Amino acid sequence: MSQLTFPQLEALYDELATAIDAAGPEQESVFLAKLVLNLAQELGDATRISALIQDSLNEPATESQPHQRLI
């Protein structure tokens, strides 16, 4: 599986932020849960998904730290 470039990640971040705003505060958590489950289904690796969930609880990486998860 190939990795996205930093500009691609930035564009996806912007798209995600817009979608979260569109979902609204009352549906934000439901939207995010559905998104993660859809992405998990695409990836098809429950162990990796669990690791990414835990990674997402940590501080995000910066462009100067590309080895870390950015999202």
What does this 3D model show about the protein?
This protein has 71 residues and is mainly alpha-helical. The protein has a domain at 26-71. Helices cover 63% and strands 0% of the residues. The chain has helices at 6-23, 28-43, 46-56. The longest helix has 18 residues, at 6-23. The protein starts with 5 loop residues before the first helix and ends in a 15-residue tail after the last helix. The relative contact order is 0.11.
Average pLDDT taken over every residue: 87
Question: What share of residues is helical?
Answer: 55-70%
Low-confidence stretches: none
Radius of gyration: 13 Å
Structural class: mainly alpha
Shape: globular
Terminal-residue CA separation: 17 Å
Separate helix tally: 3
Strand content: under 5%
Number of strands: 0
Order of helices and strands: HHH
What are the key terms here?
71 residues, 63% helix, mainly alpha, globular, 3 helices, single chain
Task: Compile the SSE list and pairings.
Layout: H1 6-23, H2 28-43, H3 46-56
